[in-house]
Predict the structure.
Amino acid sequence: MPCPYRQRFDTSKEEITVSTDQTVIIGQNIKRIDALGKVTGESPYPGDINLDGQLWMKLRFSDRAHARVLAVDTSRAAALPGVVAIFTAKDVPQNEYGLGTKDQPVLVGPGSNSEVPDADVVRCYADCIAVVVAETEAIAAQAVKLIEVTYEDLPAVFDPVEAMQAGAPQLHANRPGNILCHYKIRKGDIAAGWSQADVVVEGEYHTGYQEHAYLQPEAGLGYIDEAGRVTVIVGGQWVHKDQEQISHALNLPEDDVRVIYPAIGGAFGGREDMSVQIVLALAAWKLRRPVKTIWSREESILYHHKRHPTVIRTRWGATKDGKIVAAEATVIGDAGAYNYTTAKVMGNANLCVTGPYEIPNIQVDTYGVHTNNPLTGAFRGFGGPQGAFAAEAQMNKLAEALGMDPVEIREKNVLREGSLLSVGTPLPPGVSIAQVVEQCALESGWTRGADGHWQRPQPSQPDNPALRRGIGFAAGFKNVGFSFGFPEQCWATIELHGDGRIEHVILRLAGAEVGQGTHTVMMQMAAAAVGVPLECVRLIGQDTAETKNSGSVSASRMTFMAGNAIRGAAEMALELWNNEERPAVATYQYRPPKTTPYDPETGRSEPNFAYGYVAQMVEVEVDIETGHIRLVRVVSANDVGRAVNPQLVQGQIEGAVVQAQGYAIMENLVCVDGRILNPYLSTYLIPTVLDVPDEVKSVILEYPDPIGPWGARGMAEMPYLPLAPAIVAAVKDATGLWMDSIPLTPDRVVATLREHGIGVF
């Protein structure tokens, strides 16, 4: 069957304004190549694509948080007119999948061919039991309700701290104590560190779930293409990893599976793990007919993973002159029922919970713990926001305890060139957090006195006595690329076509465009690397049949990795061109410096090959009568190395700030006994245009990364990390109270204010 959609970008159809001087195409505000199609509705998303004769799919999810599936009776559903097929666990050739560890059945039930222990046990409400394929979507939805499942209920656990205790219900026989991962950091002599401390501050911090809430719910189309390949058109973040997981579950060679991404309506990490990919492929492979599915918003919120809730207990000590000498932390993250990316997320939280500071004596224990709660996995920042929330709150509390300015105490302790991380090794060259903190302070109104000390600005107070304003400051750092020894690479192919001169360039690179503008940036980099105008470049991407593996669009890595791969391929292709080879075609694999995993006892490692650095100031207005927090102003300073497209960088900063604002203030996913109670955007509130700050000042700093392409660092996650702790500090400035649990919803804020007699007139 011919492919109903091919990913091509013909820039001749776009109005592109670009300098003819190719040496400056890097750094220009090139209009996004997908802008016109998206604003006019011309660009097809997965739910927009159809094939003649297609069938419709709906999924039967679990009715229990933890139970053994004894039987699945599909007879009533199969008898419904219009039902074409129903698939259960016995129909999946290799019934297992998982991005990190293949520990989850595709379909849960008896008769499973799987290496997953107890593949007939549902461990959360998001487990899928059966797939219904019918002539229409309505018939499939009706049939799903007719499937009868017989369960044997099993004891469940919904608190990760309780799940670690002796006697708690066990979710996986091979993970004692429900502990998926435990990371340790042991640096220096912690006892000696406490003996040196003049001031010690302690805190217990709680962070909640966060729903990705991307505009396009999960949807896709499975079919057999003209080459006989099982093909899935879907939204995701890594076409080749989707291909690998589909081929494994169907027990097919990878070359017999094809994955194509059309336009994708947002991701933020929420599309890293499987949703509809494998079941669509299964149905198309079994039936040899096109099969389509579109999840409702309710299904999307209920059944894809969330940001990890965490409990962090920590204490830090400092000398009276503001030098931090010791830090301890215990981080417990709710892993939900399966690994997903928890092992990597908690590894990042483990690194970030002591912040971008050089501390000589550290002891950290970080756990990812299974519960029967909703699935948890990748989300923008990837464990960094949780760690930064605690670390930056501790820094602000130390500043208060010492009577120091929050900028000044950071300047005394930030990592610098040659500084040792908590894991005992120096950062890669290009450390700029000190400059970022300083510039953020200056842009926010801080001044240095004649004595060299920082002086903070004072917000003007409203006339209404119920409204109080305050300012807060926080900083952070974020890895670029895959961490802790995970193999990192990216392939690119450059084709140079023409006769006497290069007339057009084809770039083949699989990296996904999930709304961040990565395809525009890749084309800018290809034009610069080859030395041609942008309109000469055409991109072929997001299709496993057309490209080699580029890795995931995650970990703030794609500009960094793709840029280096493009430069390598362009250099090789130009050499062929200069040797009169026409067309000149070259493929290059970029591999950055290797990273290493945590030592299991000390945590020593070389965790990342590059970082980005950020600092933020926020001004808030707190209504002490209602508990409502208004974000008035944000200054976000970010070292991006080199802004390939400054306007897109600014968009990433503003988007991250607003998304983090939701995390800190508004987004309260209510989960009781493993069941999400507010799976609608009418009850799970995210920021709208009426909620965004009055001003987001994007301060784009460019300290080139030594190994980044044109000096660029990855930056999409950085502006997310410091916002929540900066807001908490600003609320403290406004009200005099520390609030250590987010989100700061009005009811929680009011309760805290009333406990302290604030807001009663």
Observations:
- Residues 7-23 have pLDDT under 50 and may be disordered.
- The longest strand covers residues 324-336.
- The first helix runs from residue 35 to 40.
- The chain is about 25% helix and 25% strand.
